[in-house]
Amino acid sequence: MIEFLIGGGPIMVPIGLASIVALAAFIERLFALRTGRIVPHGFAVEITELLNQGRHADAVTLCRKADTPIARIVEVALLGRGQTRAQIKERIEEVGRREAAELERYAAVISTIASVAPLLGLLGTVWGMILTFQVIQDQGLGQIASLAGGISQALITTMAGLSAGIPALIAYRWVIGRADELVLEMEEISLSILDIITSEEPDSDDGEEAA
């Protein structure tokens, strides 16, 4: 197997490094995007119960202890109590965008490798064909072994590039899809918390009209 990879020539080095980086980034995201690290089970229920009981300070403390993306978003909403719904929602969206960007961390790296790896394989293919034509020019068509070496190198790099690029593309799609799923779940929880907070106090406009 080692001899087979070496037969691909120097282009195999960057392809191999790219595949290792993509694998490391995917494994990191695989652990980082677990539900328990982003939206812990039972967190929304516990926060909702505390708010319904009027225990806002305990709710803030729970968010700080949890120290997860959803907890940080909910904490911002809780600290905005007394402001208008639009103001609290704007702050939630601001923090939410930051947390969403963090969920997609390293996705760009995996996407880049998914695009670059096949191109590196193509580069190796072109290089192998150049070597083949050089052999033909120098020795003619009679040296089959020399010709086979260049063609073999060309095919090995093509296979290696695709072997690195296809899994990287699948990994990228998974990371983006998983991040979108978690963002949607956080949006639903934060909106439900926002509804509870803004329903606790009457609208300032209603107060003015009553006055």
Keywords, separated by commas or semicolons:
rod-shaped; 10 helices; mainly alpha; disordered C terminus; 211 residues
User: What is the global morphology?
Assistant: rod-shaped
Main β sheet profile: none
Helix content: over 70%
Alpha-carbon distance between the termini?
84 Å
What would you report as the Rg, rounded to the nearest angstrom?
Answer: 28 Å
Describe this structure as you would to a colleague.
- The protein is mostly helical.
- It has one domain (2-200).
- The chain is built from 10 helices and no strands.
- Helix 4 (43-52) packs antiparallel against helix 5 (56-66) and helix 6 (69-79) runs parallel beside helix 9.
- The relative contact order is 0.17.
Would you kindly provide a brief summary of this structure?
This protein is mostly helical and 211 residues long. The protein contains ten helices and no strands.
What's the layout of helices and strands?
Elements: H1 2-6, H2 12-32, H3 35-38, H4 43-52, H5 56-66, H6 69-79, H7 85-103, H8 107-139, H9 144-199, H10 204-210
